[in-house]
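Methods, example record. To illustrate the input and output format used throughout this study, we show the complete record for Branched-chain amino acid ABC transporter permease. The sequence lines were provided to the predictor; the line carrying structure tokens was produced by it.
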Amino acid sequence: MHRFASLLTGRGAKLVLLALALAFPLFAKSEYQVYVMASAFIWAIAVYGLNIITGYCGQLNLAHGGFFAIGAYTLAILTADHGWNFWPAFVAAALVSAAVGALVGIVSLRLKEHFFAIFTLCVGFIIYLLIDKWEELTHGAIGIRGIAAPDGFGLVDFSQTVPFYYLALLFLILAIWFAGRLASSLLGRTFMAIRNGDALAQSLGIDLMRNKLLAFVLSTTYAGVAGGLYASMIRFIGPEEANPNHTFDMITYLLVGGFGTLFGPLVGTVGVVWITQSLQFLEDYRMIIFGPLIVVLVIFMPRGVIGTFLGWKLRKDTAAARANDPRATTKVTPGSEVNNNA
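The corresponding predicted structure is encoded as:
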């Protein structure tokens, strides 16, 4: 069992997950299932961004769904209304989301804890209202149609479901790679020091405002990238894409997977998306089942699926070390396993 756990948290886990992702379209029962998985990958990219500001830095951003919508609308407006090629518009979507994130962060990050969360919630509603009411720019409730798909090459046509699936997978891999490098870097450790307490971080000489702002901008860049991919996949967007409920969906994904873990955003997003899809036959009653499942998970796995597993593995490793060396004094501290990015 212990060898199995080591496999799940090492390079073997990454290779297995990659192999499963690459082979999924070959074994999917329908093209719709491939579409759903591609959608889950895109949402997972946005959740990785939320994990940077919330899981690593400890700042609960309730406007994250709004920045996702900014990325989606930036790409939609530039391609459908102004005839831009997809790739320049895609870069612009990430940059606009990052720029707006910087402006919001400069103001909001001066607030702490629940005041910051409430302020960003208001920002999310403002973004939603602007998209809904600014008809000259966003087309209001009518939405935007004819959004460009990514330009293909040779026989590859990204307007088709399977090629787009692999494109979404590529960007997800890049998102996970960057998140892993960030978590193991000095900057990532700085974010985690801020999460553990502003006073402690300041005592270490950390510039709180600069590092919080950097984490915020990185997270909104992730959201913009995900939004641009989402708009190009569905080819039509409306104000509902900016609904603040999307932020709470992403928080649910992160809560299920595990805050501050490397694979938590992926496991939580893919798992919840497929559970909700499997319960669609219940229509409006599916939340009666899904809601209690989430409550049970939070009660018995408060650190999420991945966080709980890493905590169990750390305790096993500590027990094994003590068995081999009775003089060992290694202790498991709350949250120490969260920083294990395996």
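Annotations derived from this record:
Residues 208-234 form the longest helix (27 residues).
The beta strands are 144-145, 236-237.
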